[in-house]
Amino acid sequence: MSITLLEAAASGLPIIATRVGGNPEVTVHGQTGLLVPPRSPAALAGAMLEMLQDTNRARRMGIAGRRRVEEHFDLRRSVARYEDLYVSLLPARREASLAKGPLREPAHVSQQPG
Asked: Does residue 31 form part of some domain?
């Protein structure tokens, strides 16, 4: 995933990128920017012209891109989601552990040569 695309979107800029790697994960074609085929200078130039000629659309895409980064790629939100997931799993994990009984060492560990 391109950090540059995330930074540009977080700055409110519409994205124009090639459809390779993690670019489609960051850029939703037609909503937060435009994705073009790789190795297609004509498609890239066309996308640039499209943004320059329709500045209102470019502005809307920039706003949508910033919102997308805030909702899906913000570090604080990501950490909070993982925290929520871990906390939600704790009761189930504890119940499963209690149902199995106390932890014991595997037989091959407790048997020491003597």
From this structure: yes
Note the pTM of the prediction, 2 decimals: 0.69
How far is 12 from 106, CA to CA, in rounded Å? 56
Q: Shortest CA distance to 65 belongs to which of 114, 98, 26?
A: 26
In a domain, 23, yes or no: yes
Kindly provide the residue ranges of all beta strands, DSSP E only, lying in 3-88, ordered along the sequence: 15-18, 33-36
Q: Nearest CA to 23 among 56, 47, 52?
A: 47
Q: What six digits make up the tokens of 15?
A: 């994205």
Residues 63-78, mean pLDDT to the nearest whole number? 92
The residue type of 81 is R
Q: Which domain holds residue 10?
A: 3-74
Tell me if 59 is assigned to some domain: yes
Structure tokens at 98: 């209690």
Looking up residue 14, the CATH number of its domain turns out to be: 3.40.50.2000
